[in-house]
Amino acid sequence: MNRRFHKPVTVQPGRIDRDRVVIDIKGAAQLLLRDWPAVRSEKHRRAMQRCLEVLRGERPPSSARSAFVAAAKEARILLEE
Description:
By secondary structure, the protein is of the alpha+beta class. About 45% of the residues lie in helices and about 20% in strands.
């Protein structure tokens, strides 16, 4: 199963000059686990769950992308979806 997003998501989890382009489930999961700058909310938890479900082959990557975008918006780190 292809685990890439249909369109990259650009976020800024840290300093202004450090934008990150997330192109797949692996990148989203790493950011959610290691570099998330905000409080771990319900939207953050949902994004993590969707990433796991994609890795298990239970959902398409688009479901994880949507949940990741929602969590990034809430954390105010989304630059481009």
